[in-house]
Amino acid sequence: MTHNGTCSVFNLIDAAGLAEGDPSKACQDMVDYAVQNGLAGELLLQIGDMLEHADPSEQSRKISNYVASRYVENGTTHSYRNPTEVEQARFAAADMQRTEPAAIWETSGFEEVFGVAFDRFKPLRPQPGLCLAVIKASALYRPGRAYNDTLETAQEVLNNLKPVVSACDRSLQSASLSFTGNPNLASVVILFDIQYSFYGNYGNAYDPIKGYGAIVTLTALDARTHRKIASVKMKHELGGMISVTSGGIYEDRIYCASLPTTTAIDIWQPFEDKLAASVNPQSGNDAYTYAVTEGNAELIVSILLDGLAGKASDPWQKAIYEAGAQAVRMDGDTLSLRLRSFDPALESLGAYADNPDTWLSDMLQNAAAYNLNCTLTIDEDGKLLQSSETPLKAAVKKAAAAVGKAYGNKDVLTALRARLFPVPIEGEAESDADVLNVSPAFTRWVQAQGEALQALTPTEWAPLYFAQDKQTLGVDKGPHALQLKCEGISPGLTLSAAYQDARAAAISDPTADLRTLFLRTLAGYALHPGKGLTKTFTVALDVEELSRGALPADYQRYLDSYEFAAQFSRMEESVSAYWEEHGGSANP
For residue 404, what is the enclosing H or E element? Predict the structure, then answer.
């Protein structure tokens, strides 16, 4: 099964169904892709949805029947293919949920569908960013009359409320929030209360009419704790012209225009901001809502590690979590796994001087190993025990501290210096000619870099590499951002200085070879940099890029600023123009 770029979970599921060959491999490929691309939680959710559509549980049937007439819009859902036998065997578990479209619930519906009162209901699988619209029991149909006074009034209010919920849904999408019709999936409950405030008397003494404006109050609650998150009032006040209804009361409809025309943006935006702030898509708490099976264990561990990575402030710990897990296995009430510690295992390598040719590659190979053994505990309900997260975090913290210290070893710096800034000559340099007498080893190194250095000859690169004075390695930012601080020459300034001096020398000596003159002048600056020509710069190193043989972006930018060919060409043109203007023999 192949994937071009990033694909949605729906595409992923469809691709697994179309894959030829072993269905078990297609299923595993689907899981691997989801884990590697941060889609584990969504895949578990949508796989459960697919299985529930194929063979719904009794509770799923009850939920679907209840919301059938309460969908905010048309109630369409994603059309799934039929699950394979492998998928059914691997992912089937209790409490799978259907992802119902947005619908409006009444508080009485919780007793009817779930057998518990609204204020005692706890969602089985709350998903970050999913909201449930619930009409509050105190909502009114009209002043002094409950919304559910009759079936007809309840239906009318629900119908009038649907466009309001739809408008909220559209507005909240910018904050990665949306509505669902399944209470078990909602992490936020938004209560909609409808009240009427007295607005004024209309008509005259002979035909008095009372006018009322509708107030729709939205109160957002944490679906698990019912802790208040935020609230906002949407007001619709009557204008100067109203219509008379029976009883001398103007029966105001809930205003269904888009939210900005109903509620001032400075009132609505804080509500939306508080809702968005309450959502942590990488909390990792989802991992504790699923019953663990051999089939879904990899996905559940991935959800947990993604959450821990999102909360980690230490770059080394964060990198360990982000690398994911391997060898995830269930054994009774224990879930074992291996994490990548990034440990270079220096004790196994010996001194760099004893094996300079393969020392760095061996170190990077060690750092790629998944060698940090961890376990999680499964509770009596078959779910991960949240307290078992503590020893896992402790193991990661201990490993991260030790590994970060290991990268500060002087042999690591020596190996990186040899990889990126090798000395171009053998022995010491006493003259500019010595700087240009490159060693066979440096020539081989330049040739091995391929396109990155092929624009110039080893001799032309020599001044830049010889001028590298010293390097230090910072490890505080983790394995994906090691900081190699370098002191060398400023390529642009040094080339400009060499251009000026070499041009003057060429005009003074018409017999001088321009290339040799330019190179030796540049080499002289490399040997004895003038004031203002030195440069301190930092190269961010990622152990992954180094393992692949890729050159760091900062390093490549530094090389690109060494515009030797352009400056030499400029000097040739300038000297040639001088001789054309003043006569005489041009330099060879």
Answer: helix 389-406
Rounded to the nearest angstrom, the gap between the alpha carbon of residue 116 and the centroid of all alpha carbons in its chain is 38
So what's the pLDDT on residue 530?
A: 82
pLDDT reading at 156 higher than 80: yes
Q: What tokens does 139 get?
A: 């909502």
Residue 171's pLDDT is what?
87
8 A C-beta contact, residue 246 and residue 224: no
Measure CA of the first residue to CA of the last residue in the chain; give whole Å: 62
Q: Residue 8: pLDDT band by 50, 70, 90 thresholds?
A: confident
Beta bridge partners of 232: 218
C-beta separation of 437 from 535 below 8 A: no
What mean pLDDT is predicted for residues 177-192? 95
**What is the distance between the alpha carbons of residues 470 and 488, in angstroms, rounded to a whole number?**
8
At residue 94, the 3 state secondary structure works out as coil
Q: What is the DSSP string of 11-75?
A: HHHHHHHH--S-HHHHHHHHHHHHHHTT-HHHHHHHHHHHHHHHS--HHHHHHHHHHTTTBSS--
pLDDT (tens digit per residue) in 455-469: 899 999 999 999 998
Q: What is the pLDDT of residue 5?
A: 40
Q: pLDDT, tens digit, for every residue of 189-203? A: 999 998 877 666 666
What are the helix (H) ranges across 232-388? 259-262, 265-278, 297-311, 315-322, 359-367
Burial class for 428, CB neighbours closer than 10 Å (0-12, 13-18, 19+): exposed
Tokens of 493: 């300034």
The tokens of 425 are what? 């000559």
For the chain, state the CA radius of gyration: 35
β-pair type (104-106, 127-135):
parallel
| Parallel/antiparallel/unpaired status of strands 325-331 and 334-340 | antiparallel
Q: What is the DSSP letter of 200?
A: E
Q: Where are the domains of the chain?
A: 1-99, 102-281, 288-406, 424-582
Q: What 8-state DSSP symbol labels residue 184?
A: G
Determine the 3-state secondary structure of 177 from DSSP: coil
Angle between helices 9-18 and 23-36 (to 10 degrees): 160
pTM of the model: 0.81
Q: Which two tokens stand for residue 358?
A: 């393969």
Helix axes 315-322, 297-311, angle to 10 degrees: 160
| Separation CA 105–CA 97 (nearest Å) | 17
Percent of the chain topping pLDDT 90: 63
HSE of 62 in the Cβ direction (CA atoms, 13 Å)? 12
